[in-house]
Design brief:
Pfam families: DUF559. This is DUF559 domain-containing protein. InterPro entries: DUF559, Endonuclease_DUF559_bact, Restrct_endonuc-II-like. The chain is of the alpha/beta class. The protein has two domains: 211 residues, no CATH class; 106 residues, 3-Layer(aba) Sandwich (Endonuclease, Chain A). Helix content is 40%, strand content 16%. It has a six-stranded mixed beta sheet with strand order 6-2-5-4-3-7. Strands 1, 8, 9, 10 and 11 form a five-stranded mixed beta sheet that branches. Helix 6 links the parallel strand 4 and strand 5. The longest helix has 19 residues.
């Protein structure tokens, strides 16, 4: 569960997409928290935490970011090209059908057909695409277009967290190339502070407490907000639950990654799975929730929902991936009890 403060300043409006800027006044976690759920007027963001190896040179950083955007596009492409996600069947027949659908879709869109087909084929076959089959420019432009469309946006931005020891000239060169080629680039992190060739924009994003889990805590090195109505494309546990629920009639009426606001004064929450009518919230927790602070924060949020009549069911990733029948049975029983008693108030 993540939170968003609708009263927070819309800092993303002050940042350009056509030139590289350095962000001051907010950390990567602060920025990530306040675009989850993704505001209606924000570009589709991809947060990338570069390590020392990735930031060792301009070429290495460019390759790492292009690969991250491409991987995000592969994860999200079922939202752009239907039928590319066939769990358990990665045959050449399924792959070829996915590629054909991508080519057909590209004919009536701005997508480059051959590259879109390669992404669709990679997803359907569960094999990474060849990095040398297309130029870096084609890969970045095409992958960014998929990421933006999956989020219902016209543009995408890479929010690049730069390590302290990164050579500033190489970071600036890589960022400028990325920005010229197809995405906005906003720099954060200790390593972004040394290059005075990049203009600085100060943003006002409220600080995120250490005990709040953000998307950059859940997924590394690259992360992005979930698409409302769908399981997070990078979460194997959320996708497993979606498949399990889709095969069960009693699970109808649910919403994945839905925004819930318990009162006018309360912050909205993004909840992994909800049944709004029955007021049941299901959360799938990764390892980042095991710390003492985050455990306490989860309990506080659970108490808030429960105070307003919600039932909160929490499971770990391991529960869903290794003992899913028990998880599904618990949720089934909870739904039946709520439905038998009528809609909670």
């Amino acid at each position: 569960m993540t939170r968003a403060d609708s009263t927070a300043a819309a800092w993303w409006r002050a940042l350009p997409l056509t030139r590289v800027v350095r962000v001051e006044g907010a950390s990567l976690r602060d920025l990530a928290d306040h675009v989850d759920p993704l505001p209606a007027d924000a570009p589709a963001p991809l947060f990338f935490c570069a390590d020392d190896a990735a930031a060792a040179s301009a070429s290495a950083l460019t390759d790492a970011v292009v690969a991250a955007v491409e991987q995000a596009a592969i994860e999200l492409i079922p939202l752009v090209v239907p039928g590319t996600d066939s769990p358990g069947d990665h045959s050449s027949l399924v792959r070829d059908a996915a590629r054909a659908r991508a080519v057909d879709l590209a004919r009536s869109s701005a997508h480059f057909g051959p590259y879109l087909a390669s992404l669709a084929g990679a997803r359907a076959s569960a094999r990474p695409p060849r990095s040398d089959a297309f130029s870096r420019e084609t890969r970045l432009t095409g992958a960014a277009r998929v990421v933006a469309q999956a989020h219902g946006r016209d543009s995408a931005v890479v929010i690049l967290d730069v390590p302290a020891e990164a050579p500033s000239r190489d970071v600036a060169a890589a960022a400028e190339w990325l920005c010229r080629t197809g995405v906005g680039v906003w720099l954060t992190g200790l390593g972004a502070a040394d290059d005075d060739r990049v203009p600085t924009v100060r943003v006002e994003a409220p600080r995120v407490p250490n005990d709040v889990a953000t998307i950059v805590d859940r997924f590394r090195p690259a992360s992005y907000p979930p698409v409302v109505g769908h399981p997070h494309a990078a979460s194997a546990a959320e996708k497993r639950l979606h498949r399990l629920f889709s095969a069960r009639e009693w699970a109808t009426g649910r919403g994945h990654n839905q925004v819930v606001r318990v009162s006018e004064l309360a912050r909205p929450f993004t909840v992994d799975v909800v049944w709004l009518q029955e007021k049941i919230a299901v959360e799938v927790d990764g390892p980042e929730h095991r710390s003492r602070h985050r455990f306490s924060d989860d309990r506080s949020r659970d108490n808030l929902l429960q105070t307003h009549g919600w039932m909160v069911l929490r499971f770990t990733n391991e529960d869903v991936l290794t003992d899913h029948e028990s998880v599904v049975t618990i949720i089934d029983q909870a739904l039946h009890r709520r439905r038998a008693k009528g809609t909670p108030t």
